[in-house]
Amino acid sequence: MAERKEKYKNVYTHIPETYSKADEDLKTKKIHEAYPNYISGPDFLKIIDSFYAGNPMALGTKPTQK
């Protein structure tokens, strides 16, 4: 482990064995402070879904005027 830390000291980040909701909230807060316009993955998918109405297209179906 020490060898890896020395070899990759500028890119290696230790992942804690215990990861809590507080850790996640702190990281999210730091991201939003650094990048105010940041949109997370789930939020981005909600925005994308808001543009589409109705049932999704299925293979073998033909588009209609609706």
Number-wise, the strands total 0
Largest sheet: none
Spatial gap, N to C terminus: 61 Å
Hey, roughly how much beta strand do the residues contain?
under 5%
Please count the helical segments: 3
Percent range of helical residues: 40-55%
Q: Unreliable runs, pLDDT <50, ≥5 residues?
A: none
**Structural class assignment:** mainly alpha
How does the overall form come out from the CA principal axes?
Answer: elongated
Q: Please write the string of helix (H) and strand (E) elements.
A: HHH
Which features characterize this protein?
mainly alpha; 66 residues
Give a verbal description of the structure.
The structure is a single chain. The longest helix is centred in the middle third of the chain and has 14 residues, at 21-34. The model has no long low-confidence stretch (mean pLDDT 80). The protein has a domain at 17-50. The chain starts with a helix and ends in a 16-residue tail after the last helix. The chain is 45% helix and 0% strand. With 66 residues, it is mainly alpha-helical. The protein has helices spanning 2-7, 21-34, 41-50.
Task: Kindly summarize this structure in a few lines.
With 66 residues, the protein is an all-alpha fold. It has helices at 2-7, 21-34, 41-50.
Please specify the SSE layout and strand pairing.
Elements: H1 2-7, H2 21-34, H3 41-50
